[in-house]
Amino acid sequence: MRSVVFPDQVSAGQRFHLNSEDYGFVRKYMSMFPRESRYPSYDNTEFPDTYVKFLLFGGEKKWPDSNIRILNKPGDAYGFMLDIDYVADFKNNIEFMVSAVIYCNSDGILNDDKYDYDTIAYPFFRHLGRVIYNYEMKRKRKHVPDLSSFRFNYEEQEP
Question: Angle at CA 134, nearest 5°, toward 98 and 30?
Fold first, then answer.
């Protein structure tokens, strides 16, 4: 995530071979809500804006504040759920990056499609995200983040 969000902050060997326009493209589409996507278009009842945004929202089907953007790489398999996020709040001018993984397979059987995502993982991620977000809201900063490179016009999209 750091290599995508802040490529200049990682060693050359950790960077992708992308130009600044390519990085902008990746960041834009990672931060886009399903309702903003034109290609492909998504049914918002099946894919709410919080779809696969585990941190902060953890399975809740709601419309998040559009001032908050999350660039993330989520995943779930065999009882593991993970989310690696960069969160930017334009209204409150805060940002943070976090990665978390949880194992939630109470029966211990793999590949049975019986995992505790709804009862353990989603609430965990929702709570973790909100704890960190609330902390960041109160934390005094020496430097105000420049979030300008994370503001996108979602109306303009590649076909």
Answer: 40
Which 3 state secondary structure label does DSSP give 49? coil
Do 78 and 110 form a contact (C-beta atoms < 8 A)? Answer: yes
| Residue 157, pLDDT score | 80
| 36-72 pLDDT, tens digit each | 998 889 998 889 988 999 999 998 887 778 899 999 9
pLDDT in tens, 77-135: 999 999 999 999 999 999 999 999 999 999 999 999 999 999 999 999 999 999 999 99
Residue type at position 146: D
Q: 134: which 2 tokens? A: 């609330």
Cα(91)–Cα(93) distance, integer angstroms: 6
Chain centre distance of CA 77 = 18
Q: Are 71 and 4 in contact (CB under 8 A)?
A: yes
- For residue 76, what is the enclosing H or E element? strand 68-77
Class for domain 32-147, per CATH?
Answer: alpha beta
List Cβ neighbours of 42 (8 Å cut-off, separation of 6 or more): 34, 35, 51
Preceding omega of 7 cis (within 30 degrees of 0) = no
| Nearest Cα residue to 85 out of 29, 5, 153 | 5
pTM: 0.90
